[in-house]
Design goal:
heterodimer; A: alpha/beta; Aspartate Aminotransferase, domain 2; Aspartate Aminotransferase, domain 1; 3 domains; four-stranded antiparallel beta sheet; 15 helices; 13 strands; 36% helix; B: alpha/beta; seven-stranded mixed beta sheet; three-stranded antiparallel beta sheet
Amino acid sequence: MLVFEKSREGRGTSFLPICDVPEVLPSPQFQRKLPLQLPEIAETDLNRHYSELGEKAYGVNHGAYPLGSCTMKYNPKINEEMAGLSGFSEIHPLQTEETVQGCLEVMNLLEKYLCEITGMTHFTMQPGAGAHGELTGLLMMKAYHQKHGDTKRTKIIVPDSAHGTNPASATMAGFETITVPSNKDGGVDVEKLKEAVGSDTAGLMLTNPNTLGLFDKNILEITEIIHNCGGINYYDGANLNAIMGIARPGDMGFDVIHVNLHKTFSTPHGGGGPGSGPVGCKKFLSEFLPSVRSEEKDGRFRLVKAASSIGEMKSFYGNFLIVVRALTYLMTMGKEGVLQASENAVLNANYMLQKLKDLYTPAYNKTCMHEFVLSLEKLKKETGVSALDIAKGMIDKGIHPPTMYFPLIVHEALMFEPTETESKETMDDMIEILRDLYEEAHTTPEQFHSAPISTPVARLNEVEAARNPILKYDWPNEKGDI
Amino acid sequence: MGSYVPSTDLERREMLSTFGLHSVKELFEDIPQQVRLKEELCLPKGMSELEVRRNMMGLANKNKVFTSIFRGAGSYRHFIPAIVKSVISKESLLTAYTPYQPELSQGILQSIFEYQTMICDLTGMDASNASVYDGATAAAESIMMCQERKRSKVFISKTVNPFVLETVHTYCYGKKIELIIVPEKNGVTDISFIEKKIDSSTACVYIQQPNFYGSFEDGEKIGELAHNAGAKYIMGVNPISLGIAKTPREYGADIAVGEGQPLGIPLSFGGPYLGFMATVDSMKRKLPGRIVGQTKDSNGKIGYVLTLQAREQHIRREKSSSNICSNEALCALAAGAYLSAMGKKGLREVAVQSMSKADYLAERLSELGYKLVNKEEFFNEFVTESPKPVSEVMLLLESKGILGGYPLRGENEGNILWCCTEMNSKKDIDELIAILQEV
């Protein structure tokens, strides 16, 4: 039941003292005539309402969440507590620098740590999420080319295995996207890349390891091809969790990158956000960074704007409380911790792949990095049970499904990313469930079409939802039936 | 020190042995030697939770928490009922991903559906999305919604929040959109400028109501001018004001956007905040980002799903209208809980008290020679001149634990933008006045 349906005229909690100054209202032409419709509900019932919603959701707190490309690792509790300190949460963004030295030190420290992990020179904390970071980086690339009078560089090269945000960000930055195909090993087709580049290439966007969970062996050749034609290499940091302490994008030839604090650096996803997507770059791009950075001199921190800054990407200095959480995480982990995280993330993914690949077909049968992709095309042909069906079957067995139907170049794809924070027995459970589902697909395929049956609702009619969109609740008096 | 990795050495060896390896390092052979790190990262060693806590608390303590705040300018300290924090701390809502599996995510989807409804109720609009990063990006995205082949020019008033203006400017740079800044006159939008310059290549007109200086704009007139030229009309609003103030719908706006931070989200040194976006029915398919819709399951039971996804980047890639993927779902959850807790009477009360206290403060200040600059009626912010150098005034207040108004820059250098909310008691205001009297 919706909170609106629980509303009763006259109910509610009073939170404020009586107004202690003379009451002033806007003059009539500035007042709303449209009645304000908001729930009137007792706090007891409101509390229960949200408890009920909480019960109808599944988080990392419940169990395994092997959602590929999303890095659903454990969200440490200490991070939440530190972000809740009043010395961070009750600070106005427009206080003077002298009164926010702690905030500036947080920004400065995280910038240093991210630079070291990725091999970049500077970072901005401003972008609100990964896609926002992509747009930021692309606009910096654009500004760089324009400053050098290179206005013909209008094309961004994106492999066909890329996240959808890459080409979408390129469009928002005013570039044309050129898609290059993958080779038979799942990497960038280097020959096709050579054909695609030219004097109109602004740059390349790449995830490495890519969305197939594979590290592109030709990475140095790829980034060199782009550099040789005058382009800039952008690193999509969505998959950074595979390589921390092992290899750095900056050493692979990347010039500008974003990282997802809500993936690699353990901050919670909040049911879709807020994330945080700091953007780092090499020195030659630093002058184009947006917003302000925190610089230290003689123990004092100051906010400094870059000389040829692209401007502001959003208000203030980024999702600061997410930055606090990520810094807390990195302080906890330290240099040995981040390495351990990446090593175990890769080990866990390979372990699961190894234990599944005799039944399910790997998209690429080789050692993977932190995630792997299975193709259920053969299973579907044999049994009629699709990737979607297996995913829904997993729900009835108590685990969150992996990413489905992505990357687009693999048919009937299921993409698993167990992360380093899952134990062997949790993975063994997942493996057993997936093996059982494989058997069931052959013995009782029809049962899959009604899955899930254990959830508050069964499969929902998404076609109808899009055809006749109902996007809000209509209060009874709007319909006129009260 | 703490790595949150459960695997023991023995388990790691067991796992490795399933594929005949002896060391984890062997899994990284695809990474060319030339790019492999030869040394360990130059980061501090990991710390125990106790040490981390001490360090982070030490950093937090280097900031000054003001108990009495008269500064807004895009970030507002309002009262947050305890239940809001309790709601957003619920682990299954906090630690879930975007609801890609609707059967397993009805709680999150329903909370977004409720949030969308409340944003529509506040603004008078027909459809809302599930949120974007903040008010400034909501403004920028709303401008992108209005782009048509023969209409791309954008008019935006100088009286909008400077961060909004700057962000819109950056987004327009990407898309090569012509951005025309409408000058201000007497602290409000110079309507005659729009009248003269608007034409058939104009995509939209964007204003903020109340504007950056707190004043109410002539929202109807500007809307008429936009619509007469066939352009869309976008209004940025303070959601608290809508507890009492006229809705964007009533002004004739096609899109309403704003910063949702005042709705139960702490100051947080600027983020994470909440960008809300709502529009009329005819433009709902142009909204960026996630949208939740109601539907039925195979048994006819009502449920919620992410809908109209054909607009989005994961389907349309370079042809999608926006690249947004992650949004501010948890902040939207906070806003929904806040609005449900306050209710219609409570929100109205917050709006009225904020406005009343600002009025009281403005009067007291003017008695002290801080002359009111606003010529038009204002909501909970207003501008005054300062009889003393602004920096001196602010330093004095700071030393007494008060965060004074925001010192304006540029053409308005020397003036102060003051803000009140229901948090400023009469006693606090009188204290501020008493201190200023000392200068």
